Every structure is written in structure tokens, then in C-alpha cells.
TrEMBL record:
Name the record gives this protein: DUF3159 domain-containing protein
Pfam families: DUF3159 (PF11361)
Transmembrane segments: 28-48, 54-74, 81-99, 105-126, 188-209
Residue ranges, annotated region (Disordered): 1-22, 214-237
Positions with biased composition (Acidic residues): 1-16
Organism: Actinomycetospora aeridis
Keywords: Membrane, Transmembrane, Transmembrane helix
Superkingdom, natural source: Bacteria
InterPro entries: UCP010219
């Protein structure tokens, strides 16, 4: 009828996308956070090489750690990794100041590598590889993945990759710490064995996580290729 307004059908509201679960890399501050965490070490090594003054080098390292924290705060990035890094730099600086030697700045990192490597190795020995435990714990996925042998093997390899990284750092840097090359090479070796080695272990970790995802999706494990001769389907008399 005229004069009667027909009700207007409202368009159905689209479902809002579910918030993405932060990954382990996100909680570590992302790639930029990992790189930024190495800035104070680089600053300390360069300042020590240029000035040879321990106090000036410590001040430069602590100042750069504070600058990184402020920069991440202004950008709206996760501040927790930066604060943790600032605390670590402060402890390293204190050790170097107390020992009166530049190599003391790296002492905490050397022994931390031994502890981390031991923990990762122990996790593999008790059949609870730490890479898998951390990943599924952070993402709230439980620990059912341990029932799949191929996933367990993948996380074993990823955890052992971190054992190699931390073990190599400890062995090489501990030897340098007690050698006559400490003042010349220890800092540069620390930088060289930092992000590059971690990137290699991270690549193995990503592979292990993808392996876990494939198993969760029910994808079958690829059948091994036979090394024997192919069967022609005919038999010889």
C-alpha cells in the first residue's frame, strides 16, 4: 500500500576475522627484535676497538640498549624483549666493570650458552624436545604431538640444532676468553656466532613446525624411494 514503508533488510554482518595467535617469533619481538637485541654487543665491540676505553664502551652499549627500548616503545612494538635485553646488557656491563676487562662483557653470554645447550640436549634425551614443547605450549595446542614419531623426530632434530649452536658458542668463546686473543677476537667472534648461527637453527625449527602442521592435517608421510631396480611387470622365464 502507498504510504507504508517496507522494512529495509539489513545486510548480514560479516564475521570478524579471528585474531591471529602470536607465534613464538612474535613473542620474541619478531625479526627486528632479534636483530635489535644484538645492537648493544656490536656497539660495545666497535666502541672498544675504536677507543680502547672500557667505561666509554660500557656506556655506549647501555645507551644503545636504552635507545632500542625507546625506539620499540615509540613504534608500538612489544617492549618486553627490549627490556629483557636491556637487563642482560646491564648485567654484562656490571661484570665487565667489576672484572676491569672488556672480555668480562661476554662472560655471561658464554655460560648462558652452556646452560641453554644443556637444557635443549636434556629435553631430547627425555623425549620431550624443547622446540616442540615451547611451540605447542605457546600456541595452546597441548602435547599430543609427541605421539607422532615423525613429528617427534623433527622436533628432536630442531632441538639438536640449537644444541649445536649453543655448544659451538660455548666451546669457541670459552677458549678465546682464556687465550691471548680475547681482547682482539672475542667480541667479533661473538657477533659472527650470534644471528647467523641462530638463523640456521631457526630454519630447522621452521621445518620441524611445518612437519608438525602436516601431521596435524593428516597428510601421509612420503614413502621412501626404493633403491632397487624398477619392476617391469613381466617375469622372465
Amino acid at each position: 500500500m502507498d504510504g507504508v514503508e517496507e522494512p529495509i533488510e539489513e545486510a548480514p554482518e560479516e564475521d570478524a576475522p579471528e585474531p591471529r595467535t602470536p607465534t613464538l617469533l612474535d613473542q620474541m619481538g619478531g625479526v627486528s627484535g632479534i636483530i635489535a637485541s644484538g645492537v648493544p654487543v656490536v656497539v660495545f665491540v666497535v666502541a672498544q676497538a675504536l677507543s680502547g676505553n672500557l667505561v666509554a664502551s660500557i656506556a655506549a652499549a647501555v645507551g644503545s640498549a636504552i635507545a632500542v627500548a625507546i625506539w620499540r616503545f615509540v613504534r608500538g612494538d612489544a617492549i618486553q624483549p627490549a627490556l629483557s635485553g636491556l637487563l642482560g646488557v646491564a648485567v654484562c656491563a656490571f661484570v665487565a666493570w667489576r672484572t676491569g676487562e672488556a672480555k668480562g662483557f661476554f662472560l655471561l653470554g658464554i655460560w648462558t650458552s652452556l646452560v641453554y645447550g644443556g637444557v635443549f640436549l636434556l629435553s631430547v634425551l627425555v623425549r620431550r624436545p624443547l622446540v616442540g614443547v615451547i611451540w605447542h605450549l605457546v600456541n595452546g595446542e597441548g602435547q599430543e604431538w609427541r605421539r607422532d614419531p615423525r613429528v617427534l623426530r623433527a622436533y628432536d632434530l630442531a632441538s639438536l640444532a640449537w644444541v649445536v649452536v649453543f655448544g659451538a658458542r660455548f666451546v669457541v668463546q670459552r677458549w678465546l676468553y682464556d687465550s691471548v686473543y680475547a681482547d682482539t677476537w672475542l667480541g667479533w667472534v661473538r657477533i659472527a656466532m650470534g644471528v647467523p648461527l641462530a638463523a640456521l637453527a631457526a630454519a630447522v625449527t621452521v621445518w620441524a613446525i611445518r612437519r608438525s602442521r602436516q601431521a596435524a592435517a593428516g597428510e601421509p608421510e612420503p614413502a621412501p624411494r626404493s633403491r632397487g631396480k624398477r619392476s617391469t611387470g613381466t617375469s622372465r622365464a
